[in-house]
User: What shape does this take?
Amino acid sequence: MASLTHSPAPLASPASSADYAPFAHLTAPNAVLYRAVMRTFLAAKERFAVHLRPEDVHTGMAAGSRPTDPEAVVKALDALVGWGNLRADPDTARVTAVEDFYRKRFIYQLTRAGEATEAALGTYDEVLGRRGELQAVALHDIVTQLRALLVIAAEGEPDPAKAHVALSVLTARFTDLADNARAFMGSLQRTIDLHDVEVEAFLAYKDRLIQYLERFIQDLITLGGRIAALIGELEAQGRVGPLLELAAVREAADAAPEDAAQAEAAARERWAARWSGLAEWFVSGEGRESQARLLRGRALNSIPQLLAVVRQLNERRAGRSDRSADFRELARWFAHAPDDDARHRLWRGGVGP
Assistant: This one.
């Protein structure tokens, strides 16, 4: 009887480190097909479907990425099993006769490594495509949560649940603010450099963009100062440490007994780092400017840069050629000059002796 063990070889060599083998399909031949297969498994997971047969995968693929030959899907599934993205189990449900045991029939499901790979790729695509935004609302939320922490800390015995929730919301909103600001400033610089920018679209929304920057700068000045003061108040009263301790202990409460001490220590370290990052973002130190101040400076500097780009584009639209255009036109004249004497005259007239 044929063995039911399934160990197909991948179509391409796996990554040099076995831990990252599930990413190997990204650079292998037929990578587009592999991505389409994995997206089909993700869609099935959202419908709570655990196992898929090859024909299920073939049918579930988007029309534009579905190969005409179902056997191509089977080969892709086998390769993904070899890389560790999928797991194959014998499809015994369809065995109705002895002859069926001699046929290789498998059902497939995502492995933990495969799910982790897809999550990482999803995050990559999301971050890469994020334009970002300057979140003035997040500044208001941070003020609200810091005030809530002051109230909680003032209680005789602060409630661990309240402290943990307030700190969690605070760090989540701060993370959103910082990540989006970084993405926005990156996209703004690309706009200033006119990279991947539709010129007409830019000219149409430039005024709104400048107003958007000015409004955020004003909010950052007002609310950033308020946030720095609230952070200083919490730290001056020695209330930060106890609050972070409450959050760390509560976060590690569900750890297994043998891991409890390690989980608690790791949670303390995490919360200390989060608070330190928040404080340094809003509060300047000796010889160090806060990230909020640096962001404000970059945003302020970007406004005259944007106006300069607008002037440059308007000049071009008005028919004024820049120097590179002049040289291109001169090159065309050189190409059509009848002889070297004519070219010399062009050079002296266009560039000078």
Q: What stands out?
A: Residues 323-353 form one domain. Residues 1-15 have pLDDT under 50 and may be disordered.
